[in-house]
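Q: what sequence does this backbone want?
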């Protein structure tokens, strides 16, 4: 519980700073907010003028027997109520416009910022957490910007005006009625403390409950495979029970406080009526004034309750904003340089060491390899040796911690990101497919490509015929994550993306999972065509890929252990040689 509380609570200064920054971001909505404030003022005034008119009507109209004044008072009352109603409606519209506009801008800004982050950012932030920033935290804030700010302004305004009106009517009555204030102040402080703790508790339980729900649904196959449905439900029942308890507790905290404030309101009215009656008896004030006073008092206590509640909303919004700002303040690790990369050149890895973000152990040490223009290099080695890491660094998904990587003599750090992503393309093991057609998915690599270029790219890797057999051809919908396509077809889409960009250097992470033999041949042929005439670095798992490479780099425990052609390395009699002889024994037909 402690951890969550620390996480969700900011100290006063930090909260103030965060809110000030949010306010500066709300600048574009200045006019809308100003309009909202005008309507808040009008509707609040309307609410407060009601009792004053009632007092005037009773004292001047009924007590003094002046019928025309009574009529005027009745009409004025109706007019004021109608104006207050209309202004109240407008204030909601303007406040929501400003609030929703602010949230929309914040959402877009955060999404855009996340999209631009380097891979290292996603090592440090889990996707689930990022999604909750964009949903739950923005939701928390919407509570504040939608009605919280409105209530805050309205409540402060209402309390101030009500006090002025009450003092103007009778200072003696005002002081007498406000005798209950110390009780309310002490109770409000206690309520703020207790309800904040209760709120954090509920929030934590909701989080737990949600993650259990998510795991239960995502993992349902595994759960059913081991017949653990009952156990899962029992766990869920337990977490649901604590969620229920914390909800009930938080409602208890609210009810005693609201009950108390209401009771104090009644006590204040009783005092006002008692003392008011005595003052009427002495002829100091009229009955109408006392009635108006009691009606005003009734208006005073609701905003006091609202302000206490608002305190929590402001606190949790500040915490949510703080988390969002920490994301918005993260600069991408991989930044664009000034120089465009030439089409041809050697890819030189020079004394490179690398440690992943948020970790301390280096996974690569002192790796130096020169990949010549047009060369095909296979990276081999045991799982976890660092092969994929070398590949990711060559494509500048990360920058090396030590040493440098250059292409055509230009340090990748100095290259423009746009030319880099044109010259060097990474084809991951499993390319992600988005909703849409096959053509849409290939076009993601270069949205400005013409239909002909698209077909050429598919044809270049020999995939056009395959997809043309589909009823809708390349306009076939792939469905969610490409579930309409087979694993091999998904790989073809991913290779066609690379072909569309037509890069000088290809970095491939060869799929470890095997395809059915028929599809495998098509994918391999597509790969061969794609690699033709390009520098290729492939994290290789298949013997045929390794044999087809010009040179082989053996990576072991983050170091370059051996480098050479197949024959040279077999001759060397080292690690590669023993791997190769193991392959020969287990796969005599290859
Ligand atoms: P290989 O491709 O040879 O199987 P990798 O290059 O994927 O090996 O991984 C090398 C080491 O780096 C492994 O110990 C792995 O656990 C670690 N590693 C890989 N990716 C990350 C990451 N994003 N964050 C932290 N450590 C990682």
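A:
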């Amino acid at each position: 519980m402690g951890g969550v509380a620390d996480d969700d609570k900011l100290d006063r200064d930090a909260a103030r700073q965060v809110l000030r920054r949010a306010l500066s971001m709300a600048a574009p909505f200045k006019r809308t907010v100003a309009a909202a404030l005008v309507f808040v003022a009008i509707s609040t005034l309307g609410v407060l003028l009601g009792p004053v008119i009632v007092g005037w009507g009773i004292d001047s109209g009924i007590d003094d027997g002046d019928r025309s004044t009574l009529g005027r008072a009745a009409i004025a009352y109706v007019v004021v109520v109608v104006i207050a109603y209309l202004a109240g409606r407008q204030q909601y519209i303007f406040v929501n416009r400003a609030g929703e506009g602010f949230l929309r801008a914040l959402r877009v800004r955060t999404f855009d910022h996340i999209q631009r982050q380097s891979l290292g950012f996603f090592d440090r932030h889990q996707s689930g957490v990022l999604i909750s920033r964009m949903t739950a935290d923005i939701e928390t804030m919407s509570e504040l910007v939608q009605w919280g700010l409105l209530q805050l302004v309205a409540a402060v305004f209402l309390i101030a005006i009500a006090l002025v009106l009450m003092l103007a009517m009778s200072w003696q009555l005002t002081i007498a009625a406000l005798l209950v204030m110390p009780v309310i102040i002490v109770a409000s402080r206690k309520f703020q403390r207790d309800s904040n703790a209760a709120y954090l508790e509920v929030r934590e339980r909701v989080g737990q409950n949600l993650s259990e729900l998510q795991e239960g649904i995502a993992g349902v196959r595994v759960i059913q495979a081991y017949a653990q449905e009952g156990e899962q439900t029992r766990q869920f029942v337990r977490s649901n029970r604590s969620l229920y308890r914390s909800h009930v507790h938080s409602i208890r905290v609210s009810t005693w406080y609201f009950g108390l404030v209401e009771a104090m309101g009644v006590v204040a009215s009783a005092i006002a009526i008692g003392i008011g009656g005595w003052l009427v008896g002495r002829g100091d004030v009229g009955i109408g004034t006392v009635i108006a006073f009691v009606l005003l008092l009734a208006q005073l206590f609701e905003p006091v309750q609202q302000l206490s509640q608002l305190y929590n909303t402001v606190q949790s919004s500040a915490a949510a904003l703080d988390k969002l700002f920490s994301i918005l303040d993260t600069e991408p690790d991989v930044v664009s340089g000034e120089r465009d990369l030439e089409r041809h050149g050697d890819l030189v890895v020079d004394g490179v060491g690398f440690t992943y973000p948020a970790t301390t152990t280096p996974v690569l040490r002192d790796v130096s390899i020169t990949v010549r223009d047009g060369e095909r290099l296979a990276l081999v080695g045991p799982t976890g040796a660092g092969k994929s890491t070398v590949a990711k660094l060559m494509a500048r998904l990360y920058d090396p911690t030590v040493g440098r990587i250059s292409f055509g003599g230009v340090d990748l750090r100095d290259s423009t990101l746009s030319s880099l992503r044109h010259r060097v393309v990474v084809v991951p093991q499993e390319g992600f497919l988005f909703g849409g057609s096959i053509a849409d998915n290939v076009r993601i690599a270069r949205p400005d490509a013409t239909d002909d270029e698209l077909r050429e790219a598919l044809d270049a890797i020999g995939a056009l015929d395959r997809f043309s057999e589909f009823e809708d051809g390349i306009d076939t919908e792939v469905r969610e994550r490409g579930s309409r396509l087979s694993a091999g077809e998904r790989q073809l889409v991913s290779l066609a993306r690379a072909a569309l960009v037509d890069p000088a250097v290809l970095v491939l992470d060869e799929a470890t999972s095997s395809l059915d033999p028929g599809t495998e041949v098509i994918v391999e042929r597509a790969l061969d065509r794609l690699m033709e005439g390009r520098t290729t670095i492939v994290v290789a798992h298949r013997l045929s890929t390794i044999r087809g490479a010009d040179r082989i780099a053996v990576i072991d425990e983050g170091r370059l252990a051996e480098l050479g052609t197949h024959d040279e390395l077999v001759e060397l009699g080292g690690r590669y040689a023993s791997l190769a002889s193991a392959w020969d024994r287990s796969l005599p037909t290859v």
